[in-house]
Amino acid sequence: MYNMESMIDHTLLKPDANKDSIEKLCVEAKKYNFFAVCVNPYYIESCKELLKDSNVKIATVIGFPLGANTKESKAFEAMDAINKGADEIDMVINIGALKNEEYEIVKEDIKAVVHAVNNKGLVKVIIETSLLTDDQKVKACEISMEAGAEFVKTSTGFTTNGATVEDVKLMKAIVKDKLGVKASGGIRNVKTAHGMIRAGASRLGTSSGVGIIKEI
User: Fold this and answer.
1) 169 has catalytic annotation
2) Is 167 one of the catalytic residues?
3) What is the pLDDT of residue 2?
4) Is 153 a catalytic residue?
5) What is the pLDDT averaged over residues 140-147?
């Protein structure tokens, strides 16, 4: 049996998140032994201070939430985030380039972030499954592997739909044990969380982590 709390990235990415809500997030992450908090880059240093006496990691988002930034700006964002104390980088894939079948551009975009992180953190690639066909999801996973990422992630949570069991199964079938799979978006209860893990997710991105653990 798995430890649910150790698979949760306790997430707060709302644009109106303030210092009080970030402090609450970190207090909860320590109390429930979540794997990480996931916050916007502005709050990395605050989280670093709030979590200094714990094992909770800090994840942040890059090229978020649209993914349409240039690879140079994503690389700078990632390097800056690592320098400020982030342990993990959740970057959004260039969705438009993928749909244009500009696969080399997509790969170089991810590689730019991987190189900027320079083994000082872990890179997760958000492929935004709700906007892709199954063939595009497969291609995104293959490119993420080729580019040197450590995880593929379903969603930003900022589009119409989040993670689905079917998408997690598909992503896991492609990456196998070479990459982790993070399910994110719409995971609000134990039943959904268990479903994602059974489908192959090794990490869950959710703002409902406390409720899920209490439900257990």
Assistant:
1) no
2) no
3) 81
4) yes
5) 98
Element (H, E) at 158: none
Q: How many structural domains comprise the chain?
A: 1
Which among 9, 71, 90, 137 is annotated as catalytic? 90
Q: What average pLDDT does range 77-85 have in this prediction? A: 98
Give the pLDDT band (50/70/90) at residue 98: very high
- Length of the chain (residues): 216
Q: Which two three-digit tokens encode residue 46? A: 């605050």
d(CA 206, CA 12) in angstroms, rounded, equals 8
Of the residues 74, 107, 153, 172, which is catalytic? 153
Which residue among 107, 124, 137, 182 is the active-site one?
A: 182
DSSP 14: -
> Which domain does 121 fall in, by range?
4-215
Question: What is the DSSP code string of 126-144?
Answer: E--GGGS-HHHHHHHHHHH
DSSP string, 59-122: EEEESTTT--S-HHHHHHHHHHHHHHT-SEEEEEP-HHHHHTT-HHHHHHHHHHHHHHHTTSSE
Dihedral sign computed on CA atoms, order 47, 202, 210, 214: negative
CATH number, domain at 46?
3.20.20.70
Structure tokens at 159: 């589009």
How far, CA to CA in Å, does 74 sit from each of 17, 40, 61, 98?
22, 14, 10, 16
